[in-house]
Amino acid sequence: MRTPFIAGNWKMNTTVGEAVTLVTEMRPRLEAIKGVETAVCPPFVSLPGVRDALRGSSINIGAQNMYYEPKGAFTGEVSGAMLKDLCQYVILGHSERRQFFGETSEIVGRKLQAAVRAGLKPIFCVGEVAAEYEAGATREVVTRQLMTALPGIDIPHHLVIAYEPVWAIGTGKAATGEQADGVISLIRQTVERIFSKDFAAQTRILYGGSVTAENIAEFAGQEDIDGALVGGASLKPDQFVSIVEQTAKAKRK
Known about the structure:
Elements: E1 5-9, H1 16-31, E2 37-41, H2 47-53, E3 60-63, H3 80-83, E4 89-92, H4 95-101, H5 105-118, E5 121-126, H6 130-134, H7 138-149, E6 160-163, H8 177-194, H9 197-202, E7 204-208, H10 216-220, E8 227-230, H11 237-252
Parallel strand pairs: 1-2, 1-8, 2-3, 3-4, 4-5, 5-6, 6-7, 7-8
Helix pairs in contact: 1-2, 1-11, 5-7, 7-8
């Protein structure tokens, strides 16, 4: 049985003070929900404050990125060793990193290797852009991203994969539950090809892309979808708590 997982990606939002206030407000409400693992992923500068605010909590913390080298002359970058004492998870391969910062699947693969070596749990993002979706190339693109980044690394027992169709991120246009479940089923089959049937069966795969309290039930009710990577709605306490609550309810059925 895979434990449902809801992670909030705050992107480049919130000051340190705002981040601490946000998690302090959500903490008791999230801790009261059973059967779902949760994580918040604030900007780098807020990781220490959020860690302190959540100390002793069941809520996990994730970083939004990391570099693949352990240390060195890489101005502005952050390594896995630097993150290890601040968080449990790290988002890698997000479409915004690919789009705005030129990250390729090869680079993402190196980051995955580095995260596993550092003892961090990767949240590995895959997904197609609008032109690829409209051309019917979704399955080809997602399979290629997986086959490029995952092979050759030590089996990451805490790997989480997030399917995020780029055309749905921040646009208000979410995929349907059936569409997302179909792609996530493909992802699970591809993970089985790379690692093993048992590993694929235990790997949690999330949907991301304009997830809200209004549509989460459609995704959480699908057999192969294990939760969500939430963007803008994770900055709104009532929305994020409702998403976690509805996921817990859907997965108990």
